[in-house]
């Protein structure tokens, strides 16, 4: 009784998917309606997202979601990767393909920004960790382009797709926080920073909170997807990581989480930002979450390292590769999985080998050895992020929750438990979609604060537990080795 169907669109850097969530007071069921590749394209002008192909995937997915729900959806919501945006002209037409955050155009831009607003002041005002692709730096790089001169609006990628589905424009708060133009204390635009940098905040549509209405599917969209209207669209935590953190099946307060997919986002949920200089030096970010929360976390390069190697090796079977990697001895060599040197695509096995050689460690040669080096390095980076976050925020941690596609990698889950010296609970592989549907369900009347939503998940979702093996001494030593370099 009281069970309704919701469509969650989740756009990851490696694939987009549309999931159907059926949610009631005591049940949550998620099934995949449609998955489509997200294939960035290298054009003469640089690396670009194929945004129209993604929109096509969203429409196909909504049609498939409708087919699974008798043509009736209680609502739909979109989340996706952070920081990137489309520019619209005065008539609302898209000006070119959105630039990919791995594009090289932001090289050297941060230094120019810091000449006007020093990095320390930027952090104190926005709480966002340095990454070359933060929207602030992308907009700064964009400002000298011909298309920017025509731009009347900036829409972050999930907001852009929401606009195409509904005809209504807004800027959802959790993703807005990744622009580095939001003050995490007031949870609204950082006018001071924007003003000093000459960024016109009127380019952004008004802020929306997760749970706010975001319009309804346009008649053309209903016709194309075969859905019966009206279908309201809900602003969810439109940053995929914000939605994934909603779906962490925690039952207490002393937990850390790691969202593992293309990226690993590892940290804590807090009620207030940590804006100290020590926190900045440790490269922790304060992104905004549901219900007034702060996502205090570190961005780690994540399974991107493995994806790029697998691509270079001609897409071998991942299951076999991971079984072979499990047989390689632990911690022979590690690289810094937080290093921005691994951001750009291409030559990944070589770049990892070079990093090992340069630091005087054994050079991994076979795909199994390289894979093991990546997974050990990721587990070590997870350890450092969890322990650093706990220390910097003065927040004890007894358990680490893993969610996202990386939970399908049992070796990574086990190594993370070993490295952290803490029990690991692996939850949903499609955590972002799960958090997305819960926020929609709540907007449609499901009762519950964030802890209650999480308890609902802990009762209804399959969880896998990993206990730490052996002593953490070896991981501590590897951590010290890496820090010494
Ligand atoms: P994103 O949302 O960033 O696109 P996902 O959360 O979907 O990423 O995670 C994708 C990653 O999950 C892949 O790079 C891969 O390493 C891992 N993964 C997916 N399926 C499997 C599997 N069957 N076994 C092991 N790892 C997997
Ligand atoms: C993960 C993610 C992450 C961002 C990165 C650009 O998909 O949204 O939180 O930092 O993409």
Automatic annotation (TrEMBL):
Q: Where is the Carbohydrate kinase FGGY N-terminal domain?
A: 8-246
Q: Specify the taxonomic lineage.
A: Bacteria, Bacillati, Actinomycetota, Actinomycetes, Kitasatosporales
Molecular function GO terms recorded: transferase activity
PANTHER family for the chain = L-RHAMNULOKINASE, SUGAR KINASE
Family classification = Belongs to the FGGY kinase family.
- Domain spans labelled Carbohydrate kinase FGGY C-terminal: 256-443
EC numbers listed for it are 2.7.1.-
Q: Where are the transmembrane segments?
A: none
Native organism is Streptomyces eurythermus
Keywords assigned by UniProt, alphabetized? ATP-binding, Disulfide bond, Kinase, Nucleotide-binding, Rhamnose metabolism, Transferase
Gene3D superfamilies assigned to the protein according to its UniProt record, in alphabetical order: 3.30.420.40
This chain's protein is named: Rhamnulokinase family protein
- Which InterPro entries does the record associate with it? ATPase_NBD, FGGY_C, FGGY_N, Rhamnulokinase
